[in-house]
């Protein structure tokens, strides 16, 4: 198997597990307070990994002295921070097995950006992918009643609104990340570290005043989550660097299935069967969109 595919599969497993761990052990704490602690420690954990993996043909001084590239990477990092805050708020307020399939419809938002900004052609497989993923949203929100009631619920239920908003923000950030890692060829450690910093910059002003809501007994766990965050972001960036983004994105976003399966077993959330079907439809739709 291509090493890039292995990176993408590992990222999906790690991301899916991360969401379940967050909901299980830290969902009761203020989201921004948790993120402030987790991403501050992730920055520290990532420093030695960044030093060890920094490419020899990309001097640090040369990379940081390119204002356009640094500015684009910084803006992408801040946007990613907002997307993560919104997405974790969705997980915090709703069930993991409900929220995750909606939050991982990222390529559905990437596609119109590429069509409008880059002139990408919308093929029949991609149209089919949109239909399948939309069916996933319908199934996730289905309750007996009017035909359009599931869509109305998705647009009016706060966790669903947050999950879809997070997916849209991630869609924009993913397009930018692809440009950073492929067109601009920025080093993976630079993009990852700046992304972690951007998330912290977004979360810290909101979470600093609520840090006292995190009990001392939670500190080791938050630090452990920081290590997981550092590792999964590095693996994710390696996937986007090694294989086409159109291949990496649907694989990484298959974390929806991982989160639904593990969340259904560990958290014992209701409507497991329906949400598993919804997550599978969402991932299949994403695959068709990305590979079409």
From TrEMBL:
One Pfam family per UniProt: EamA
Domain of life: Archaea
UniProt KW keywords: Membrane, Transmembrane, Transmembrane helix
Membrane topology: Multi-pass membrane protein
GO cellular component: membrane
Subcellular location: Membrane
Domain EamA intervals: 3-141, 162-290
SUPFAM superfamilies: Multidrug resistance efflux transporter EmrE
Coiled-coil intervals, chain numbering: none
Main location: membrane
Transmembrane parts of this sequence: 6-22, 34-54, 69-90, 102-119, 125-142, 154-172, 184-206, 218-235, 247-267, 274-291
Name of this chain's protein: EamA family transporter
Organism for this UniProt entry: Halomarina ordinaria
């Amino acid at each position: 198997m291509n090493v890039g595919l292995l990176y993408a599969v590992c990222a999906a497993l790690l991301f899916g597990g991360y969401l379940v761990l967050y909901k299980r052990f830290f969902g009761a704490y203020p989201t921004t307070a948790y993120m402030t602690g987790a991403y501050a420690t992730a920055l520290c954990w990532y420093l030695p990994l960044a030093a060890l993996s920094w490419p020899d043909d990309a001097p640090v001084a040369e990379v940081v002295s390119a204002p356009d590239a640094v500015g684009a990477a910084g803006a992408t990092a801040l946007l990613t921070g907002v997307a993560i805050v919104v997405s974790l708020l969705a997980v915090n307020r709703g069930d993991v097995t409900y929220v995750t399939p909606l939050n991982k419809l990222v390529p559905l938002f990437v596609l119109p950006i590429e069509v409008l900004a880059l002139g990408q052609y919308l093929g029949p497989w991609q149209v089919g992918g949109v239909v399948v993923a939309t069916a996933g949203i319908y199934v996730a929100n289905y309750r007996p009643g009017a035909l359009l009631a599931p869509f109305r619920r998705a647009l009016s239920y706060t966790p669903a609104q947050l999950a879809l908003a997070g997916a849209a923000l991630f869609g924009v950030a993913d397009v930018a990340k692809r440009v950073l890692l492929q067109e601009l060829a920025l080093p993976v450690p630079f993009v990852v570290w700046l992304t972690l910093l951007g998330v912290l910059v977004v979360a810290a002003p909101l979470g600093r005043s609520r840090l006292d809501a995190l009990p001392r007994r939670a500190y080791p766990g938050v630090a452990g989550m920081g290590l997981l965050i550092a590792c999964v972001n590095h693996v994710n960036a390696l996937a986007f660097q090694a294989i086409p983004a159109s291949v990496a994105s649907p694989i990484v976003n298959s974390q929806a299935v991982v989160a639904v399966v593990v969340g259904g077993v560990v958290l014992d959330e209701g409507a497991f069967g329906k949400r598993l079907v919804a997550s599978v439809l969402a991932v299949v739709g994403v695959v068709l969109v990305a590979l079409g």
